[in-house]
Design goal:
It is built from 13 helices and no strands. It is an all-alpha fold and about 270 residues long. It has a single domain, classed as ABC transporter involved in vitamin B12 uptake, BtuC (Orthogonal Bundle). Helix 2 packs antiparallel against helix 12, helix 3 runs antiparallel to helix 6 and helix 7 packs antiparallel against helix 10. It is globular and about 55 Å long.
Length: about 270
């Protein structure tokens, strides 16, 4: 049964795109969690509603319309926090509310919620196209390039931004690049788990990895492994039990988090 399921092209495409998107979110999530910007995924996912609604109204591709909309919004978050001297979570909340409100307004103009829009809200990984899988591969390559050449600067800026600034590291440029890549990742992930659950992919695998790993590089590896395994397990479970794939992927992630917490407690107890 599983082999027959895997023989379908749309299943292979969905698993490939889902795995790539999960790996991207896991890597980004590690840095966002350390910088206490993990909720930026939640804020930008709400902005996705504006891009998707506008695309459906115009008859255009939701992915290509949403990417510039979400990127502009991510820059808006950074500028709000910088110019008005407010905390990052407040700036995220403002942009998130604005994106959701505009999205609902455009949705009403487009005639309300329909099947296509609901698929983006709650995820439909098996509807991901090969062009989106290619975009995920390109984005992962960009992220790995950025990580390879700016690894030390990025780690330093994530753990202690003021100290990194005194060392001559352009922390603002690091934050801007990280945020723009996160924007693209959020858009490319909304078919995998849905707009409302994107932030979970950015938060849960990194938090679980932090409990399991002993070095920072191990955190990155564990986060990617857990995220990709959750996608595969979630898709298979959703197929076997005929349940929504997006929610199942997140539930598997939560199960991994619970297991990581239990292992961490057990390891700490025996280490005494």
């Amino acid at each position: 049964m599983i082999s027959e399921f895997l023989s379908y092209g749309f299943v292979q495409c969905g698993l490939l795109a889902g795995s790539l998107a999960a790996a991207i979110c896991a890597i980004l999530g590690v840095f966002l969690v350390l910088k206490r910007l993990s909720l930026i995924g939640d804020g930008l996912s709400h902005v996705c509603l504006t891009g998707v609604a506008a695309a459906l109204l115009l008859g255009a591709s939701p992915v290509y319309v949403s990417i510039p909309v979400v990127m502009v919004s991510s820059v808006g978050i950074l500028k709000l926090a910088e110019k008005f001297r407010i905390y990052g979570d407040a700036a995220i909340g403002i942009v998130s509310a604005a994106g959701l409100a505009v999205g609902l307004f455009i949705t009403a103009l487009a005639g309300g919620f329909n099947t296509d829009l609901l698929g983006y809200l709650f995820g439909s990984i098996l509807t991901v196209g090969w062009d989106e899988a290619v975009l995920c591969a390109v984005l992962l390559a960009i992220l790995l390039f950025f990580l390879t050449f700016f690894y030390r600067d990025l780690v330093s800026a994530s753990f202690d931004a003021p100290f990194a600034h005194t060392r001559g590291i352009n922390v603002q440029a690091m934050d801007l690049t990280l945020t723009l890549i996160t924007s693209a990742a959020v858009v490319l992930t909304f078919k995998v788990v849905g707009i409302f659950l994107i932030s979970a992919l950015l938060i849960i695998p990194p938090v679980a990895a932090l409990m399991l790993a002993r070095t920072f590089k191990q955190v990155l590896v564990w986060a990617v492994v857990l995220a990709v395994l959750a996608v595969w397990a979630g898709v298979f479970l959703s197929f076997l039990f005929d349940i929504p794939s997006g929610a199942t992927i997140i539930l598997v992630n939560l199960a991994f988090l619970a297991a990581a917490y239990a292992w961490n407690r057990l390891r700490s107890r025996y280490a005494r």
